[in-house]
Each structure stands twice: as C-alpha cells, then as structure tokens.
Amino acid sequence: MGLFDKVRSMREQVVGLIADIRQRHDIEELERKLAAAPEDTFLMQQLSDAYQQAGQSRQAVDLLCRIGELYRSQRNPETALAYFRRAERLATSDERLRLLRLMVELMIQLGRYSDAFERAQQVVELLLTHHELAAARGYVETLPPLGEQDAKYRKELVDLVNINRQEWAQGARGTWLDPGGERSFSSERREQFPDQTILVVDDEPGTCEVLNLCLRRLGCTVLTAEDGEAAQEVALRHQPSLIICDLLMPRMDGRQFFDWTRRHPTLRDVPFVCLSSKGQPEERLAAFERGVEDYWVKPFSATELTFRVKNLLRRLQPNADFRGRLQEVSFPEVLQIIEGGRKTGLLKVTSAGREATLYVREGQVLDTELASYQGVRVVYIVIGWLRGEFSFRSAPVDRLPQIPLTTQQLLLEAVRRYDETQSLLDAEPDLDRPYIVSDRFASLVVPEDFASEISFLKALFDGQRTFRECLQSLEGDLEAMQMVVELRREGLLVPASARS
Hints:
Strand content: 5-15%
Mean pLDDT: 84
CATH architecture of the largest domain: Alpha Horseshoe
CATH topology of the largest domain: Serine Threonine Protein Phosphatase 5, Tetratricopeptide repeat
Structural class: alpha/beta
Radius of gyration: 27 Å
Number of strands: 14
Shape: globular
Number of helices: 20
Oligomer: single chain
Number of domains: 4
Strand order of the largest sheet: 6-11-7-8-9-10
C-alpha cells in the first residue's frame, strides 16, 4: 500500500469513527428525552430509526412493538397494525412468530380476512419449521372465523398442518407408506428451481407435454426438441443445466446425441438422463457405463418423474454459503446477517418464479437486478416477498456501487416504503374494480415532457385491469402509487363503467 493509499485509508477510518461517535451521541440524547416522556410516540419513532441506522435492529424492533402496543391499548388497531408490520419485517424468526400472531388478530378485528389468512399461514409454517406440530394444530383449531371464506381458508391451514394425520406408532414398519397406504409429503414439495434450464428431447409430443408440465411446476425453464439434430442447436444456444432425452428417435437418436454432447466442451459435463421403453438390465448398465446420469423407463407416472427430477436438481444447485426460505428467515434478516458478517458475494432471492440478484461487498449492497429493474427499487420490491427462497454465495464482486445508502439505511427506507404501500392499499375502497382515464383527464393539454406519462397511464388503466392490479404493476415505486391514488381521488381516474 502506497503512502497516498495509507493516508486515504486513515482519513476514511477517522471519518467513520467521528460518524459513530455522533450516532452514539444522538441515540443517548434521544434515550434521555424518551426517559422523560415515555409515551411520546414521535420520540420512539426517531429513536427506532436511529437504532436501525446504527445496526441495533433488536432495539429498533422493541421500540416499534412498544408503539404498536400503545396504539393497541388506545383501541387504534389500524395504527397498531402498521407498527407491528414494520417490526415484523426487521425481527428475527422467534420474534416474528409473536408479531405475526398479533397481526392476524388485528387483521381479523379490521375485517381484512385474506391478509389474516396469509399471515396465519406464515405462523403455521414457522411453527412447523420449529417442529411444533401440536402448537400449529392448536393455533389453527383456535383461530377465530375468517369471514365468508372461512371454510376455504381453514381447510388450507388444516392441510398445511395435516391435523388429521395419524401419528406413527413406535417400532419398525418396513414401508415408505403412512398408515392407510397414504404418502406423506414434506414441506419441500413446494421447492422451486427457477435458475435451472432443462432441455427435453423426444419425438413423442405426449411425453414432451407431460415432462414440460412437471418441470414448469418446479419453476424450471423448459426447452424442447423433437430429435437429436434439432436439439444440437437448442443446446448450444441455451446451455441447459440438465438434458432429458429419449433413446429411440429419427435422424439422430439418444445415444448419438449423448455422444455429441460429450464431445462438445460446453456440454460435456451437463447431466444427461435417458428415456426409453427398453428396460432390460444390460441396456441400462450400458448407458450408465457410458456416463448417463440416470435411466428412466417408459411409461412413468408424473408424480414419480417430478420427484426424480427434483432430486437431480437439488444436486445441480450451485454451492452456497447459506440458503433458506423467506417464510423462516425474512429478507431484512438475511441482509442483516450479511452485513454483520461483512460478506462479499451474490445474494439470490426467488419468489413466485421471479429472481432478484443483489451484489454485496463487505456487507454493503452495491447494486441489484430483477428483470428490467436495478438499484434501490429491487430492494423496495423484494422487501414485500413473504414467501420464497434465498441463497448467498461468496465471490469477488467487481461492480461499481449504484446504491448510495448503507445496508441499514437501505433497509430503513425499504421498510418505511413497505409500510406506506400497505397502508395505501388498506385505505383504498375500490381495489377490485377496473378503472380508466376520465374524459376530463384525457382532454387535458399537458407539456410535451409529460406526454409519455399520460400515454403510460392510458395504457395502464385500460378498463381490463383492476385498480389493485394497476397499483401492483407499479411495485417498488411508492411515489407513482401515491400519484395514481391522488388521481383517483380527484376524479381523473374513474371506474370503467362510469366514464365522465
């Protein structure tokens, strides 16, 4: 390290030290003020923000809960829910369980039964993760009614807990089946593999269709080809992570295509599964000897095929320092773990077939990607993902910083926006009606600078999508959502059946 670098490093350390001292001083000052006025919610909010910026998430959560309890005691469930919701996004899994229970109670009290059901699902999933089957069963049994859809919601929760499942008797059974001949599927049945691309090669359309359906249910990208010759071009263009290929096909059969892949440098290591109606032992052994990953004999059941593919895909998952499910460890908690360990690498978060990538250096988020989105907006979107999976892999990150906030500042802003977005949606009365641009709005003369925005609004509010769907299309952009809500309140956006 040269003299200039040493001086710059020392300067940065001094600046960081001064910032830490000021931050501690601000926290101590707020703590003194709050001690003198223990029920001042404004001071509590300020101190909670200060705690979070200092990386003291536990203290921030405690204060948010304290504010929520205060509003709850004042019979103001709406405001209490808002603070508990913010606290839940920052809490650890143990604290989240208590907060989720409180949120379900308040949502039922406010008549928001679909939201209550979604949070109740999270409660049950967390209890099952902690192997508390009896507690999960008891929670569902004592849950208050969930409105008109109560029977449907309760059945889904019962299925999740599997209340009617008979417990295993002690001793050996010698069978994979549960009592009564039923199969017992674990929570892994919802496992998704959105980062895997699979090439299916078969000249029988029916087989391709069955495989396509099974693989897409697992979140995979599926490519198809009718024979080995057609598959060559597809494989070279898309570089699949797994190939499932029929043996007997015209032009180029499965063995010839397999030999071709082994000779190609970018495909030689791709796992290759053979499909065939030939199930003789010598045929299978010859395939395995040549390097085939697996050999599936036709006909096969869709259920068996799904489990076979899932077991293969698990082995194909890239190495990760740690991975998990958002139902068990929330996205903010994951970011705080990464920041606390000053980790450098790639964080991938998937939910409902979507994948976000966060580039991290020494615990700080440098940049993000999610489809066409980049930067802070991706974090503002992912903060709302309650279900999904995450994985972090340590790796050098050669990327210029595009996010000017520290991880704690980014989380603080993301949680604030998440809460304001939820409050915005809760306050809207007509979310499920289609809306259009009113004649008055359409006839307004606007500067050229705003012409594209007006065109966008006209295309968005086309009378086909509900107001909820239009708002959801603006995900992560709180300001745009607020503007749209204001346009509706001013009568510039109207129900599709009442153009004015």
